[in-house]
Design a protein that fits this description.
The protein has helices at residues 27-31, 33-47, 61-73, 128-140, 158-163, and strands at residues 11-14, 22-25, 54-58, 76-80, 90-97, 100-107, 116-124, 143-153, 169-176. By secondary structure, it is of the alpha/beta class.
């Protein structure tokens, strides 16, 4: 089967959410049955046989890719949520945004020392959310196995930023230069 051209499903929206930014919209890709299944299948196939026991995805779009990838890998899914969204005891990680700070949390019992964990998200831009998720994984004593993204905004150099803190593999289906 020929590899799907994911780029054909990505729409560029100029000046969104603010002037000068070109937003890359993947909703047509995940809204298309072949596009969505190809993203999930290709991401999962890359990690089959690597012993992944859990996939962590940040809200909200990380859920859309991460949960089905976890399913395909026979792994559990751990949602990384904004403060106040999880009902039990949590651990938190703050991270920098271009315009301030944000925070994500997971339940304290979501991961164990024996877990081999993959971070999956729809997009990596500056790497802040990915690094925050990796730090949460580290706090639990679980093993970070890598990072998987549907799209990477390479012109923002997220690989360099992530590699400063974590030396695991970074796998992206679409790389925007």
């Amino acid at each position: 089967m020929a590899r799907i051209k994911y780029e054909d499903f990505i729409v560029s929206i100029p000046d969104y959410p603010e002037k000068g930014v070109v937003f890359k919209d993947i909703t047509p890709m995940i809204g298309d049955p072949q596009g969505f299944s190809a993203v999930i299948d290709e991401m999962a196939e890359h990690y089959i046989g690597k012993g992944i026991t859990k996939v962590v995805g940040a809200e909200a779009r990380g859920f859309l890719i991460g949960a089905p990838v976890a399913y395909r890998l026979g792994a559990g899914f751990v949602p990384a949520r904004k403060p106040g969204k999880l009902p039990r005891e949590v651990i938190s990680q703050e991270y920098d945004l271009e315009y301030g700070k944000d925070e994500i949390q997971i339940h304290t019992d979501a991961l164990t020392k024996g877990d081999k964990v993959l971070v999956v998200d729809d997009l990596v831009a500056t790497g802040g959310t990915a690094i925050a998720q990796a730090k949460l994984i580290e706090k639990t004593g679980a093993t970070l196995m890598g990072f998987g993204f549907a799209m990477e905004l390479a012109f923002l150099h997220p690989r360099d930023i992530i590699k400063k803190e974590f030396d695991q593999e970074i796998y992206s289906l679409v790389v925007v230069e």
